[in-house]
């Protein structure tokens, strides 16, 4: 007797939002599928916190809002709701029509890579982010070794890639005024502990 694979239920964006608003945990929505998001390591959270603090200091008094981890982003071209680790949005914040809790206009996004999501963050998620007209810059920060990948939009379908491995090197963002040294981004991170 052959067992048939269980068919996955497909949800509408409205069904997802109804579920997500009442949920105790966060979930991504990818083209009809609801996917639970796992918690991060202390290193993951520390790196996101350091980047947030650096952004706050650098952008003080400027027309930007900065969000960490819990801000939902809607990407209509990919039918994707997601929660970037760090996102910078120019003011005024653009929200999904009819929603007060979901943004649509990021200029810079940073993801702290984990073993389970690094390929998705580099490939499918980055491809989805690139469909957002306001999106200009992407940082992928490794939590296991000193390594940062920076992607800067230069034209409609052109991005420049730069990578950083030296703790003495500095990352200069192009979309917003921020320069941060890798040594500062990885301050107090004990590599190999996670």
Quaternary structure annotation: single chain
Fraction in beta strands: 25-35%
Fraction of residues in H or I helices: 10-25%
Identify the strand order in the major beta sheet. 3-6-8-9-10-11
Find the structural class using helix and strand composition: alpha+beta
The poorly predicted ranges are none
The separation of the N and C termini measures 44 Å
The helix/strand order is HEEHEEEEEEHHEEEEEH
Radius of gyration from CA coordinates:
17 Å
Provide the residue-averaged pLDDT: 93
State the gist of this model.
By secondary structure, the chain is an alpha+beta fold. It is built from 5 helices and 13 strands.
Structure in words:
The structure is a single chain. The protein has helices at 13-21, 42-58, 118-122, 124-129, 182-185; strands at 27-30, 33-36, 64-68, 72-75, 80-82, 86-90, 102-103, 108-113, 137-142, 148-155, 158-164, 170-172, 179-181. The mean pLDDT is 93. It is globular and about 50 Å long. It has 194 residues and is of the alpha+beta class. The chain has a six-stranded mixed sheet. The termini are far apart. 21% of the residues lie in helices and 31% in strands.
What's the SSE blueprint?
Blueprint: H1 13-21, E1 27-30, E2 33-36, H2 42-58, E3 64-68, E4 72-75, E5 80-82, E6 86-90, E7 102-103, E8 108-113, H3 118-122, H4 124-129, E9 137-142, E10 148-155, E11 158-164, E12 170-172, E13 179-181, H5 182-185
Parallel strand pairs: 4-7, 8-9
Antiparallel strand pairs: 1-2, 1-5, 3-6, 4-5, 6-8, 9-10, 10-11, 12-13
